[in-house]
Design brief:
Radius of gyration: 18 Å
Largest sheet: 2 strands, antiparallel
Helix content: 40-55%
Order of helices and strands: HHHHEEHEEH
Low-confidence stretches: none
Distance between the termini: 60 Å
Strand content: 5-15%
Strand order of the largest sheet: 1-2
Shape: elongated
Number of helices: 6
Mean pLDDT: 91
């Protein structure tokens, strides 16, 4: 079975890149492999910086103030990065959809298509509010991709959730005192 890289995997990859920016191009490629991508990227002299720019632009979608703005930003990103969907069976991996031109093989080109379409699929199938910043406090700005069944994930980690709970408990105790 071939897992399509567009969707949950792509938005989780984008969040992982945003939350822990890799030091090198090779580290970015390693994260794409961990996310399940198998495409061989053609090397480019500016890949590391171009992917950083792509992630920074994607973060504008994460930080959008409302659904309409989020949709408009994401539509602009998809318009620049994607091609018409096409069925492909390269390397006999199994039939699946691509949203990029077959000759688009550079790391920034592939990630732009995969991340923009994947984010759109995530938001339209799970809900437009399923992508946000951690709500723990102002010191944690990690991206949260809510893939929970109930759609209530507010924190990037158990640690941040626990810290927020402790703060709420202490605030209640202080009001009672």
């Amino acid at each position: 079975m071939h897992l399509n890289p567009y969707g949950e995997y792509a938005v989780l990859l984008a969040a992982s890149l945003a939350n822990a920016w890799p030091e090198t191009r090779e580290d970015i490629v390693a994260q794409t492999r961990e996310a399940g991508m198998t495409v061989e990227f053609e090397p480019g002299h500016n890949d590391h910086a171009a992917v950083r720019e792509l992630i920074d632009e994607w973060l504008t979608v994460v930080d959008a103030a409302d659904d309409r703005t989020r949709a408009d930003l994401l539509n602009e990103q998809m318009a620049r990065a994607t091609a018409y969907p096409r069925l492909t069976n390269h390397d006999d991996e199994g039939w699946h959809l691509h949203y990029r031109d077959d000759d688009a093989r550079s790391l920034p080109q592939v990630l732009a298509a995969v991340i923009s379409v994947g984010t759109a699929l995530h938001l339209t199938t799970r809900g437009m509010q399923r992508l946000r910043r951690c709500e723990a406090d102002d010191t944690c700005r990690a991206v949260v991709v809510d893939v929970t069944r109930n759609g209530r994930q507010r924190y990037c980690s158990v640690r941040c959730a626990n810290r927020a709970a402790v703060r709420r408990h202490r605030a209640r105790a202080a009001r009672k005192a």
